[in-house]
C-alpha cells in the first residue's frame, strides 16, 4: 500500500487524500511536521514540503502537482463503481480550466490565506523553542482575503455544477482541501456564500470526505459546523 506523508490540516495533503479516495486508491498516512525540518524528511523531499506519496515500488511522488499529474496520466480510463473517475475529466479545454483552478487554490489561495492563517492560528504555536502570539494585523488581512476568495468560489459554484464545469475534478478537491482547513478554524461566514455553501455541503457528504471530518488537532477543537453535514 502506498504511504502518504502529510499533516492533518495541510490543505495540499487534504486535497490529495480526497483525490485518492475518489479514485479508489488506499494509502497509509504518515504524519509529518514540515516546520521541524527533520533530516529524514528532507532526504525524502529536499523541498521540505508536503505531501509526499511513496508508492509500493519505492518511487516517491513529491508534492501535490507530481501526485495529481501522475494519477491523471495513469488513470485516464480508470473506473470506479462502473463509471470513469479521472482527476481531470472532459475535453482539453475543460482540463485546462480545471488546472487553472488547481493552480489558483494551491497557489494564490495558499499564499494569500491558508499558509498564513495556519501559521498564525496553529503552526506558530507548535514550533519548538518559539513562542508565537497571533498578529491581529496579519489576521485582519487574512480575513479580508478569505472574503475575496470565498466570493470567487461562490461565483464559480453559482455559475457551474462543479467549480470547474459540469464534472467533479481535482479542482474541487484542491478547493476543498483549503476550505476545510479554514473551516476547521471557524473562519468562514457560510451564510454570506449560499452557492459555495451548497457546493461544499455536497463535497462534505461524499464518502471521500469522512476521514477529513474526523481529523482533530490536539488542543485545538474544530468549529461547531466543521463536521456538520447540515451546517
Describe, in plain words, how this protein is organized in 3D.
By secondary structure, the chain is α+β, with helices and mostly antiparallel strands. Helices cover 52% and strands 8% of the residues. Strands 2-1-3-4 form a four-stranded mixed β-sheet. Strands 5-6 form a two-stranded antiparallel ribbon. Helix 4 runs antiparallel to helix 5. It is globular. The model has no long low-confidence stretch (mean pLDDT 93).
Which structural class best describes the helix and strand composition? alpha+beta
Total helical elements: 8
- Overall body shape: globular
Cα-atom Rg, whole angstroms? 17 Å
**Could you tell me the mean pLDDT?**
93
| Biggest sheet descriptor | 4 strands, mixed
Could you give a short description of this structure?
By secondary structure, the chain is α+β, with helices and mostly antiparallel strands.
Secondary structure blueprint with pairings:
Blueprint: E1 3-6, H1 11-22, E2 28-31, H2 39-44, E3 52-54, E4 60-62, H3 64-74, E5 79-80, E6 83-84, H4 92-126, H5 136-159, H6 170-184, H7 194-204, H8 210-214
Parallel strand pairs: 1-2
Antiparallel strand pairs: 1-3, 3-4, 5-6
Amino acid at each position: 500500500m502506498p504511504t502518504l506523508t502529510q499533516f492533518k490540516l495541510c490543505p495540499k495533503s487534504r486535497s490529495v487524500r480526497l483525490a485518492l479516495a475518489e479514485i479508489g486508491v488506499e494509502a497509509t498516512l504518515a504524519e509529518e511536521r514540515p516546520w521541524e525540518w527533520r533530516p529524514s524528511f528532507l532526504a525524502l523531499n529536499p523541498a521540505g514540503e508536503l505531501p509526499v506519496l511513496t508508492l509500493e515500488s519505492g518511487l516517491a511522488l513529491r508534492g501535490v502537482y507530481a501526485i495529481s499529474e501522475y494519477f491523471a496520466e495513469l488513470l485516464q480510463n480508470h473506473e470506479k463503481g462502473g463509471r470513469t473517475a479521472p482527476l481531470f475529466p472532459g475535453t482539453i479545454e475543460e482540463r485546462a480550466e480545471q488546472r487553472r483552478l488547481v493552480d489558483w487554490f494551491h497557489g494564490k489561495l495558499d499564499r494569500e490565506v491558508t499558509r498564513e492563517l495556519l501559521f498564525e492560528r496553529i503552526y506558530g504555536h507548535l514550533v519548538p523553542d518559539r513562542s508565537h502570539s497571533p498578529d491581529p494585523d496579519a489576521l485582519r488581512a487574512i480575513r479580508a482575503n478569505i472574503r475575496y476568495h470565498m466570493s470567487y468560489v461562490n461565483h464559480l459554484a453559482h455559475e457551474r455544477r462543479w467549480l470547474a464545469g459540469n464534472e467533479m475534478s481535482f479542482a474541487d478537491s484542491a478547493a476543498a482541501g483549503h476550505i476545510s482547513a479554514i473551516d476547521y478554524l471557524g473562519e468562514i461566514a457560510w451564510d454570506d456564500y449560499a452557492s459555495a455553501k451548497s457546493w461544499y455541503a455536497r463535497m462534505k457528504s461524499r464518502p471521500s470526505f469522512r476521514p477529513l471530518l474526523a481529523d482533530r488537532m490536539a488542543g485545538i477543537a474544530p468549529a461547531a459546523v466543521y463536521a456538520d453535514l447540515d451546517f
